[in-house]
Amino acid sequence: MEIPYTVNARKDTGLYNAKLGIWLFLASEVMLFGALFSAYILLRVGATPGTWPHGLLNVPLGTLNTIVLIVSSVTVVMAWASLKMKQFGKWRMYQGATLVCALIFLVIKSFEYNDKLTHYEVVTKEGDKFHVYDGHLVQEDKDKIVLHPSAHRLYTARAIAYGFGPEPAGAHAAADHGAKEHSDKHELITIQRSTIEHMENYGPKHHAYLAIYFTLTGLHALHVIGGAIVMAFFFGPGAKMWKTNPEQFTNRIEISGLFWHFVDLVWIFLFPVLYLL
Amino acid sequence: MSHSSTPTTGHSTSDGHHDVASEVRRYLIIFGALTVGTIVTVLASYVNFGSSTMNIVVALIIASIKAFLVAGYFMHLISEKKMIYAILVATAFFFAGLMYLTLWSSEPASLIHHQSYVP
Amino acid sequence: MQHSHDTHSHSHDAHHHEEMGFWSKYVFSTDHKVIGIQYGITSLLFLLFGFGLMGLMRWQMAYPGTPIPVFGPILEKLLGSAAAGGVMSADLYNSFGAMHGTIMVFLGVVPLAFAAFGNYVVPLQIGAPDMTFPRLNMASYWLYFLGGIVMLISFFLPGGAAQGGWTSYSPLATIIPTQGQTWWLVGMVLLINSSLLGAVNFLATIIQLRAPGMTWMRLPFFVWAQFVTAFLLLLAFPPLEAAGVMQLMDKVFGCSFFLPTGLMISGKVADVSGGGSPLLWQHLFWFLAHPEVYVLILPGMGIVSEILCNNIRKPIWGYKSLVYSLFAIGFLSFIVWAHHMYMTGMGTAISTFFQTTTLIISIPSVIILTVFFITLWGGSIRFNTQMLFTLAFLVMFGIGGLTGLPLGFNFVDLFLHDSYYVIAHFHYVVAPGTIFALFAGVHYWYPKATGRYMCDFWGRVHFWCSLVFMNIVFFPMFTQGIAGMSRRMYDGGANYSAAANKGLLGALPDSAIYSNVIISIGAWMLMLVQIPFIINFVWSIWKGRKVESDNPWEATTLEWQTPTPPPHGNFAVAPTVHRGPYEYSVPGAASDFIPQNQADTKAKASKS
Ligand code: HEM
Ligand SMILES: [Cu+2]
C-alpha cells in the first residue's frame, strides 16, 4: 500500500498531506515567536524607565528590508501562480527573484548587525573620575581608540550607575528620530587605552533590548536562510520533478511559499516592534 | 490504495487558468496595499498619538492589517479548509492565553527589576 | 500484490517488498514500525539509565557521605573528583538529580509512550500504510538520538552535567559556572525539534490517513489519546524552545533574559546587563511542562483503554465521554501551568485564577478514570500480565491524581510545595501509573511486533514485585513531605533532623529520616525486579512461544487484522471499516468480538 494523498486532496479534509503538515508546523511557529514576543513585552515593561531605546536601529534600512520581504512574498505567490498556469519559464524567473530578495535581505541585515557590533560603550577612569563614552569604533591601535559618537545610544545599568543616565523626561522630547540636536557632539573622541576600565560593544550582552533584538532577528534570519535553501533546491536540482510529476512539484512550491509568507509575516510585526516603537 | 482521480473541491488543485489569472491581479493590488501600509507604519511612528501606548496600538493595528493581507490572500487563508481554520483557532487561543496570562502575572514581579546597579 | 480482503492470511512471507540493505532496513529506516521499535528500545535503555542515576543518589540519601559500595569506585574512575573516594559529591548529586528528571521525562517516558507506541500502533490502528511523512519520522528519531547523545556526553564535561534541576530555573541554572547547562539546552533544543516533527506527523497521519469508514468516532481510544498528545506537544513545546534559546543566549553570549538587574553572585554583583525576568523562565517552562505531564499520562490512558476492553470482552462504557474528557483535558491543560508557581509571588489574583482552572481540569481526569472503572463492572476479566498492569494503573493513577488536588489549592501548596509530597504525587502518576501502562502495552503488542508471546509467568513475577516495591518507594514520600522534608536535599534531610537539631520545633522527625533507608532499599529492589522483565523481553524475541494466529488476543482493532509482523506497507489493501473500535460480546454475533473491518456481524470472526 502506498501513502495516499501525497498529491491529491483527501475528500473530507480537502487537503493534501503536505499542506496540512505545513500549517501544523506554522501553528507551532506561531507559538515559538509568540513566546519570544511575550519575552519582549516583559523585558520592555520591566525595564528601568527611560532605558528602553527608541530609534536605535536604522529606520530607512529596516523599511527597505520590509519592502524587500514584501516583494519576495509577491514573487513567491506569483511563482506558484505561474506553475498553476503551466508557465514554467515564468516560474523560474519569479523563483529566482525570490532568492535574490532573500539574499538582499540577509546582506542588509548583516550590515545592520555589523553596525551594532562596532558600536561601543567605553568606561574610562582618569584619576578618580569615571566617564562613559559611547560611539562607533572608527579607529584603533595599540594605545588608543577613536570613537565616533552616534545620535542614538542606549543607557545601560552600568552607565547609569556612573551618572550617565538618560536625560530627564522632557529635555529629550520628540528628538528620538532626529539627529540634529546631537550634531554638536559629532566630533571624534580619542580615548587612551590605559584609561579604559570597561569596554563593551552593542552585542546581545549589552542590554536587554539588544538581547531580544539579536535573538528575534537572528531566529528570523535563520528562517530566511532555511527557506532560501529549500527554494534554491527547487530552483536547481529539485526542478526536475516538473517533468515527472508537475502536480506534486506545484504543491511543493505552494508549501515552501506558505513557509516564506510566514517568515514575511513575522517580519511585519518585528519591524515596528523593534525599529519604530 | 488508489490515489487516482479523486475529485477535489479546493482551488488548490482544480482551478484553471482563468481563476489564477484573476488572482494575479489581486496579488498585485495587495502588494500595493502592503507597501503603502509599510510607509504608513513608518510615518505613524513620527506622529504623537497622545501617549506611547497609543502609538504602540496604532502600529500594531497597521501591522495586523498587513498580516491579515499576507495570511488572507498570499497564503489563501480567506478560502481555506475547515481543518486549517480549526488548527489556527486553537493556536490563536493558546497564543492569547500565553501572552495574556504571562503578562498579567508579571506585574508585581516587575518590582524586582528595579533594583539599581552597584558597581 | 494480492487483492483479497482477507488480510489475516498466514503468508508471512508472501508480501512483496523491495530488498533493502541492513542499514536502510533497520537503521535508517522510514518504516513506522521499525522507527517505533527503535524509539522503544532506545527509550527503554534511557529509562534504565535514568533509574540507575536515582539508584546511586538513593545511597547518598540513605547513608549520607559514605562511599557507594561497588559503584562508588567505578564512578570515581569515570568522573574523577566528583566522586572522590566513591562518595557522591554535592555537585554530582545535583547533576544526577537534574539528569534523572530530564532523562526520565524527555528521553524515557515521552519517547516510549508517544513516539514508540504511537509510531508502531497508530498507523496500524487507523488502517494506514505508514506515517504521512516517513522521512520526517526518521529525522525525528535521529534528532532524538542526537539529543540523547548530547545529554550523555555532558556527564563527562569538566564540572559535569547540568545541575539546575530538570526545571532549570534561572538565575540558578544560568549562573552555575560549568558548561553542563549549555549542553543541556542544546540537547533540549534537539529533543524539542524531534518532538515537533513527531507531533506534526502524528496529527497529519491521523487526520489524513484514516482508512475508508474510519470516522472520527470509530477511532480506537488509543488513537484519540495520541492525537491530543500530539496537539499538546505541537503547541506547548515551542515556548520552551524559545525559552531554551533565550537561556542559551544568557549562557553563551552573556545576555540577561532571565537575570534581574543587581543580581548578586557569591556576594559580588554579576557582570550582566540585567533587566531580565526570572519569572519569565518559569512561565515558559511550565507552559510546556504542565501540558507535558498530560503528554506523559494520556498515551498511558490510551493503552489502558485498549487492554481493558480486550480483556473484559466488553465495549468501553461511555466512549464519547472519554473522548470529550480528553478534549477538555487537552484544552484546559494549557491554562493551568502557573499552579507550579504559587510560591513565586506572582500575585493572589492570578493564583486564584490558576487554582480554579486546576480544579476544573481534575473533573475530566476523574471522568476518564470513572469510565474505566465502570467498564470493569460485570466483565469476565482475563487476568493476563497486561491486564494486571492495567488494573494496577487504575489504582495507582488514582492515588497520584487525587493527591494532586491538595496541591492545586494555593494555600495548601504553600506548605507542600517543593516537598517530598510533590515528588510522591507525580511519581505515583508517572511511575506506577504511566510506566505500568507502558509495561502493559509492551506485553500486549509484543506478539504483533515479533510473532511471539512474552512469558506470562515471568511477566507476573515482574508485575507483583514491581507493584510492591513501587509502593514501598513512593508511599513513604507522602509522609516525609507532610513532615516537612524538602526535595533536592543532598543529605536526605539529615541536617534538618530532630537528631541534629535537639529541641528545635519543626525539625524533621526521625521517622522521616529513617524512611530514606526504607525507600532506598525499596528502590534497589525495584531495580532488581526489573531483571525478569529485561530477560523476558530479550529472550522472547527468539525463544518466546509463537503466536497461533495474527490476532492472538482476539481483539477488534485493525492492527490485529494484519499479518504478523506486518510487512512494509502494512495492509495489502486498505481495510474498510464498518464499526466502532470495541465491539466485544455483541448480542447475536457469531463470536465474542467483531473486528472493525468486518462487514457482517453474523460471520464468525476468523480466528484462523
Ligand atoms: C489530576 C489532577 C492533577 C492535579 C490537580 C495536579 C496538581 C499539581 C500541582 C498543583 C503541582 C505543583 C506542586 C508544587 O510544585 O508545589 C503538581 C506537580 C506535579 N505534577 Fe501534578 N497534578 C495532577 C495530575 C498530574 C498528572 C496526570 C501528572 C503526570 C503524568 C502530574 C505530574 C506532575 C509533576 C511532574 C509535578 C512536579 C513538577 C516539578 O515541580 O518538578 N500531575 N501537580
Ligand atoms: Cu501541573
Name of the CATH superfamily of the largest domain in chain A: Cytochrome c oxidase, subunit III, four-helix bundle
Number of strands of chain A: 5
Total separate domains of chain A: 2
Do you know the CATH topology of the largest domain in chain A? Four Helix Bundle (Hemerythrin (Met), subunit A)
Q: Architecture of the largest domain in chain A in CATH?
A: Up-down Bundle
Low-confidence parts of chain C: 1-17
CATH first level of the largest domain in chain A: Mainly Alpha
- Secondary-structure element pattern of chain C, one letter each: HHHHHHHHEEHHHHHHHHH
Helix content percent band of chain A: 55-70%
Beta-strand content bin of chain C: under 5%
What integer value in Å does the Rg of chain A equal?
24 Å
> What profile does the largest beta sheet of chain C have?
2 strands, antiparallel
| Individual helix count of chain A | 7
Alpha carbon gyration radius of chain C: 25 Å
Describe the structure using short key phrases.
heterotrimer; A: 277 residues; alpha+beta; Four Helix Bundle (Hemerythrin (Met), subunit A); SH3 type barrels; 2 domains; five-stranded antiparallel beta sheet; 7 helices; 56% helix; elongated; C: 608 residues; mainly alpha; two-stranded antiparallel sheet; 17 helices; disordered N terminus; binds protoporphyrin IX containing FE; binds copper (II) ion
Describe this structure in words.
The complex is a heterotrimer of chains A (277), B (119) and C (608). With 277 residues, chain A is α+β, with helices and mostly antiparallel strands. Chain A folds into 2 domains: 150 residues, Four Helix Bundle (Hemerythrin (Met), subunit A) (Up-down Bundle), CATH 1.20.120.80; 86 residues, Roll (SH3 type barrels). Chain A has a 5-stranded antiparallel sheet with strand order 4-3-2-1-5. In chain A, strand 1 and strand 2 form a beta hairpin. In chain A, helix 2 packs antiparallel against helix 7 and helix 3 packs antiparallel against helix 5. The longest helix of chain A is centred in the C-terminal third of the chain and has 31 residues. The radius of gyration of chain A is 24 Å and the shape is elongated. Chain A starts with 16 loop residues before the first helix and ends with a helix. Chain B is mainly α. In chain B, 28% of the residues are buried. Chain B starts with 10 loop residues before the first helix and ends in a 15-residue tail after the last helix. Chain C is mostly helical. Chain C is 60% helix and 1% strand. Chain C has a two-stranded antiparallel sheet. In chain C, strand 1 and strand 2 form a beta hairpin. The longest helix of chain C is centred in the N-terminal third of the chain and has 36 residues. Chain C is globular, with a radius of gyration of 25 Å. The N terminus of chain C is likely disordered. Chains in contact: A-B, A-C, B-C. The site of protoporphyrin IX containing FE has 22 residues of chain C, from helix 9, helix 11, helix 12, helix 13 and helix 14.
